[in-house]
Amino acid sequence: MKKLSKILWGVALIIVGGIFALNAFGVTDIEVFFDGWWTLFIIVPCFIGIFTEREKTGNIIGLAVGVFLLLCCQNVLSFDMLWKLAVPAIIVIIGLKLILGAVFGDKAAKMLADSRKNGSDIKSTCATFSGQDVSFDGEAFDGAELTAVFGGVKCDLRNAVIEKDCAVTATGIFGGIDILVPDNVNVKISSNSIFGGVSGKNRRQDIPGAVTLYINATCIFGGVEIK
Question: Is 0.70 surpassed by the pTM of this model?
């Protein structure tokens, strides 16, 4: 993704430089500083971010806002209309994000449901306006559901006994969740974030023959960190 980002930014800069050069030689007469030209500082980074970043919701919202502002500056829309359309557009984008995430990116939840049917012990931890520390030292770990709402959860799996593929769902709503993962397991992460994010994604590994821990993170004005 970093390589693609550099390529797209390089193409954008070449186009801008080419326009200035052609204008200077009189080949073209393209108006660079048109009404609302400053909105490109919103539109271009968000547009590139849609193709280069894993979390796309913020970039989609930013792109929509940038386009709305540009249309207002061009007198296509009024600024009064901007405020009437911006909030509904953001709400719709967030709703679509949640629906698509639930339909296509919830392998961890399915694994937990199957584990419950098979009689596995799935631990659920919820911190609401508080903090919770949960540890699985020396315990067989089959999966967990972690939720932090205006609070924090710390889940320590470093000394857990993980003998098969298992899953964790982590939901942070105005809260944070830390998941400490042992070094001898593979980690696969899927996430749905709205004004939040997952850090430590480089914690993923590819250890031949090792079990895999699937983590599904949902962050709404919150965060999940994998350590």
Answer: no
Length of the chain: 227
Identity of the residue numbered 57: T
**Dihedral sign for Cα atoms in the order 209, 214, 215, 216:** positive
Task: Give yes or no for a contact between 145 and 122, defined as CB atoms under 8 angstroms apart.
Answer: yes
From the CB of residue 71, how many other CB atoms can be counted at a distance below 10 Å?
A: 17
Closest CA to 226 of 189, 180, 194, 187: 180
Q: Which strands form 176-180's sheet, in the order they lie side by side?
A: 131-135, 152-156, 176-180, 223-226, 197-199
Query: Looking at 80-222, which runs of residues are DSSP E strands?
Result: 123-128, 131-135, 143-149, 152-156, 166-173, 176-180, 186-194, 197-199, 212-220
C-alpha 74/C-alpha 7 separation (Å) is: 30
CA 199, CA 72: separation in Å to the nearest integer? 36
Contact 43, 23 (CB under 8 A): no
- The rounded average pLDDT for each run of 10 residues, N- to C-terminus, in the chain (227 residues) is 73 86 84 84 84 68 84 84 73 68 62 72 83 87 87 90 86 88 85 73 68 84 84
Number of other residues whose CB lies within 10 A of the CB of residue 151: 20
